[in-house]
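Is this the right way to post C-alpha cells for a design question? Let me know if I should format differently. Anyway, here goes:
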C-alpha cells in the first residue's frame, strides 16, 4: 500500500507515523482498503524537488509537493466501481519537500503535523485524479482534503 523513501534527508519515524495515518484514512475514505493500489512517497530537500519540478513540469523552482498519478480519473473511477483490483498496481508517486513543510507550517501558524498531513492528503487526491487549477475542480478537491484532516482531528 505504501512505501516511504528518503532522498538526501534523514529518516524520521515521526514523519512515517503521520504519513501512514493519513494514507490509511485516505484509503478508507475512498474505499480502497481492499485494493492493491500502491503509493510511493519520497521525502526530500528543496534542491531535489526543484530538479524534478524542472524536469517534469519545466518549472525551475522548488515547490512543496509533486504528484505523479498513474491513472486518468475516469479510468481509476471505473476500476474502483468495478472493484477491479485483482493484482497490485501503482496509484502513483508523491514527492514532498520536508524543508518547505517546515517553512509553511511556520508561515501559516500551524503544526508541522498539520502541514505534512495536508501535503500527503493533497498529493493523494491528485493521484486520485482531482485538481485545483480551475475553481470548479477546486470545489470538489478541497472538501475531500478537509474531511480527511477533520476525521484525523488535525486542525489548523
Amino acid at each position: 500500500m505504501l512505501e516511504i523513501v528518503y532522498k538526501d534527508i534523514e529518516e524520521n519515524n515521526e514523519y512515517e507515523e503521520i504519513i501512514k495515518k493519513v494514507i490509511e484514512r485516505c484509503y478508507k475514505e475512498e474505499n480502497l482498503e481492499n485494493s492493491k493500489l500502491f503509493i510511493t512517497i519520497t521525502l526530500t530537500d528543496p534542491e531535489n524537488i526543484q530538479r524534478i519540478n524542472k524536469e517534469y513540469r519545466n518549472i525551475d523552482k522548488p515547490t512543496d509537493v509533486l504528484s505523479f498519478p498513474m491513472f486518468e480519473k475516469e479510468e481509476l473511477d471505473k476500476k474502483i466501481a468495478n472493484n477491479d483490483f485483482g493484482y497490485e498496481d501503482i496509484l502513483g508517486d508523491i514527492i514532498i519537500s520536508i524543508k518547505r513543510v517546515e517553512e509553511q507550517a511556520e508561515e501559516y501558524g500551524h503544526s508541522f503535523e498539520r502541514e505534512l498531513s495536508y501535503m500527503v492528503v493533497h498529493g493523494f487526491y491528485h493521484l486520485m485524479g482531482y485538481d485545483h487549477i480551475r475553481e470548479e475542480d477546486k470545489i470538489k478537491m478541497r472538501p475531500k482534503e478537509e474531511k480527511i484532516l477533520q476525521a484525523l482531528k488535525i486542525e489548523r
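Format looks fine. Someone answered above. Worth noting: The chain has a mean pLDDT of 93. The domain at 2-151 is CATH 3.40.390.30 (Collagenase (Catalytic Domain)).
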